[in-house]
Amino acid sequence: MKAWRGAVCSGDAVEEKKMVKSELAVAFPPTFSVSEIKNKQRRHFMFMKLKQEKRKQKMQLRKKRRKEREALGDKAPPKEVPKTIENQRVYDETTVDPEDEEIAFDEGTDEFSAYFNGLTNPKVLITTSDRPRGRTVRFCEQLATVIPNAHVYYRRGLALKRIIPQCVARNFTYLMVINEDRQVPNGMVLCHLPNGPTAHFKVSSVRLRKEMKRRGKNPTEHYPEVILNNFTTRLGHTIGRLFAALFPQEPHFVGRQVATFHNQRDFIFFRFHRYIFKNEKKVGIQELGPRFTLKLRSLQKGTFDSKYGEYEWVMKRHEMEACRRKFQL
Asked: What is the DSSP pairing of strand 267-277 with strand 283-287?
């Protein structure tokens, strides 16, 4: 009898402990973190599963909001604008106002005024650093098919200070130098002739035509249209005019080719497209290539002079990139 009673008491105690544990579990749910899983494969699987569930929840919420907007019709509230780094950009004092008289005067007297007044036609010399590799050479050749009146010449060990007078004597308006590192193009020096300025860019994400999927046929000899997007500050305005002066002012609309320089967070994305009219309302585009990304490193007054040149602007990373919402172009 005593043993049986002890068993009954021990069973009651176990049930009481289970009830207490269940109450605690309801009151204080255990926190779960994927990082606590020690098995790497299991941890990655659980992370992807949680990510997929969040994506499903977002899609369901989006569909629900869309149905609510359709049901309300004209009474639906305006769509919320998502917060991005660009629309929260810190205001820059040098932002260009197109109607400003001072800016109009500067444009009429700067180094590019002869081009925009129709007094000169672009003529570009494209060269490379010493002993270029095949990828850099192909990149220069494809740039020459994009930029009209562009000629590719090999460097042959000549210094830029000796090349510039020869370019001026032969009526070249631009000198473009493509530098490379480890057989990959990584820099561009763009010098406007005969009086400058000279810009130095970092080149990244270069994709040649053979490396692009679903590209169109090779570009024709028609002069392309030029789109300069989001160059808002005085520095960006100068860089935009520097790119615009590379191309003739009278594009051939028959060719339907467009060269785009799009500035986003001080990265300049270059794309070359051809647009196709499908019908009266729809237009399709196909990328022709090449594509690349530029990042301005410095802007120098006059022609290229690394030793005695006067710099208008130099990229200082630790000072200028301290605030993520402040942009220079």
From this structure: antiparallel
Give residue-wise pLDDT tens across range 4-41.
444 434 455 555 555 544 544 444 445 668 888 888 89
- Using alpha carbons, select from 204, 234, 290, 224 the residue that is nearest to residue 94: 234
Judge contact between 95 and 119, C-beta under 8 A.
Answer: no
257-264 vs 267-277, strand pairing mode = antiparallel
- Residues 6 or more apart whose Cβ sits within 8 Å of residue 311: 298, 299, 300, 301
Q: Quick one: which of 204, 197, 188 has its CA closest to 140?
A: 188
Q: What are the E-state strand segments in 193-280?
A: 198-207, 225-229, 257-264, 267-277
- How far is the C-alpha of 304 from the C-alpha of 192, rounded, in Å? 9
Half-sphere exposure for 270 (CA within 13 Å, toward CB): 22
In 3-state terms, what secondary structure has residue 225?
A: strand
Question: What amino acid is encoded at 290 in this protein?
Answer: P
Which range has the worst mean pLDDT, 5-14, 61-70, 257-266? 5-14
The Cα-based distances of 251 to 20, 213, 246, 263, 304 in angstroms read 81, 27, 12, 22, 30
- Per the rule left: phi > 0, alpha: psi between -120 and 50, beta: everything else, 182 is left
Give the integer Cα–Cα distance in Å for 124 and 190.
Answer: 10
The tens digit of pLDDT for each residue in 270-285 reads: 999 999 998 888 899 9
Cα four-point dihedral sign 69, 70, 72, 76: positive
Percentage, residues of the chain above pLDDT 70 = 90
